[in-house]
């Protein structure tokens, strides 16, 4: 292995830059040439590729987003697009490719590996919805961003004795909602993975009012529905309740990565290069119980991740 490439694909996440830096510096440390591919698989098809040296990744460890840009690429899903990408990779004598992204990006990496380009996937998404790993790069930062927002919203909600619904990201998964809800002291956490009972929520608000609580914070995962609709449902049962909604949106995708995400990205980026040097292909890196591991992409795509019910139940116990 002499030349490797790195790209970011799908939705961006804080810590992707830290992972790029780790891939580039580890590669150069071991005497490899490292190529940066721009705009995900688009850059591979259209030859938007630049060699990265050690200083080209200086000063990015602490930055959100991705210096390589990211994109979705429909053309890559076609046989023709895939062939073009493989040709460009061969032209650059790329023996290995590190793909930082989610499940969709791994499907692309798997297809490309069939064309003889060794591929390794890294889990980069704030949603934490990748089954082969306990944590994804960007998740911890997003949770901390939500936590900061909860703290601020709580101040004003307490002053006015209001109920608040905060809608958070996570696509079809409730990890951000669960972790931020638990650590932010939310009264109710609504996740796509667990059925909710609107009457139970209403009872809890009423009980909270009786016990003298100054506010009631509901964290709603976007995978369940919109905050506005949820507020309407509660309003129907409690017409006099002063209820406000906040949709946090894309602030959750940006910001300087936390120490946790920088550490995760640095370790995973370095491991990806080591795996490529060993001739590995078609694998995704994960972390389980604090230990790095790697899993065959097909196996990883078939794995299912379940929400930690112990944590979910804890949110209920601690918010009585
Ligand atoms: P994520 O990687 O975050 O899951 P996407 O699902 O949007 O994001 O996938 C990112 C890119 O990966 C797509 O734009 C496409 O180029 C590639 N990709 C996704 N699914 C496939 C597939 N089934 N086959 C080949 N490439 C795919």
UniProtKB/TrEMBL annotation:
InterPro entries from the entry? ATP_PFK, ATP_PFK_prok-type, PFKA_ATP_prok, Phosphofructokinase_CS, Phosphofructokinase_dom, PKF_sf
Q: Where is the Phosphofructokinase domain?
A: 4-276
| Membrane spanning stretches | none
Q: Which residues of this UniProt protein bind ADP?
A: 21-25, 154, 185-187, 211, 213-215
The catalytic residues are 127 (proton acceptor)
Indicate where this protein resides in the cell.
Cytoplasm
- Keywords of this entry: Allosteric enzyme, ATP-binding, Cytoplasm, Glycolysis, Kinase, Magnesium, Metal-binding, Nucleotide-binding, Transferase
Q: Name one GO molecular function term.
A: 6-phosphofructokinase activity
Q: What does this protein do?
A: Catalyzes the phosphorylation of D-fructose 6-phosphate to fructose 1,6-bisphosphate by ATP, the first committing step of glycolysis.
Query: What name has this protein been given in UniProt?
Result: ATP-dependent 6-phosphofructokinase
């Amino acid at each position: 292995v002499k030349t490797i490439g790195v790209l970011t694909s799908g939705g961006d996440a804080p810590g992707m830059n830290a992972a790029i830096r780790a891939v580039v510096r580890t590669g150069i440390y071991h005497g490899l040439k490292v190529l940066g591919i721009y705009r995900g698989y688009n850059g591979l098809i259209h030859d938007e590729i630049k060699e990265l040296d050690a200083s080209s990744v200086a000063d990015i460890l602490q930055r959100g987003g991705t210096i390589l840009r990211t994109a979705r690429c429909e053309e890559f899903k076609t046989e023709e697009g895939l062939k073009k990408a493989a040709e460009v990779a061969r032209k650059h004598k790329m023996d290995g490719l590190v793909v930082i992204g989610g499940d969709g990006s791994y499907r692309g990496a798997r297809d490309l590996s069939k064309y003889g380009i060794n591929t390794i996937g890294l889990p980069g998404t704030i949603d934490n919805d990748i089954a082969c790993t306990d944590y994804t790069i960007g998740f911890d930062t997003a949770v901390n961003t939500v936590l900061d927002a909860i703290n601020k919203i709580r101040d004003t909600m307490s002053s006015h004795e209001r109920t608040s619904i905060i809608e958070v990201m996570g696509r079809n998964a409730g990890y951000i909602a669960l972790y931020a809800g638990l650590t932010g002291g939310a009264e109710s956490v609504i996740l796509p993975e667990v059925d909710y009972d609107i009457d139970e929520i209403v009872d809890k608000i009423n009980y909270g009012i009786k016990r003298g609580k100054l506010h009631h914070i509901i964290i709603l995962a976007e995978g369940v529905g919109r905050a506005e609709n949820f507020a309407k449902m509660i309003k129907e049962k409690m017409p006099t309740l002063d209820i406000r909604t906040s949709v946090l949106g894309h602030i959750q995708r940006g910001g300087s990565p936390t120490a946790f995400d920088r550490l995760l990205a640095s370790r995973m980026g370095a491991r990806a290069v080591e795996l490529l040097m060993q001739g590995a292909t078609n694998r995704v890196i994960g972390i389980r119980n604090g230990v790095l591991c790697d899993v065959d992409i097909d196996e990883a795509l078939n794995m299912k991740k379940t929400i930690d019910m112990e944590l979910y139940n804890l949110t209920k116990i601690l918010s009585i």
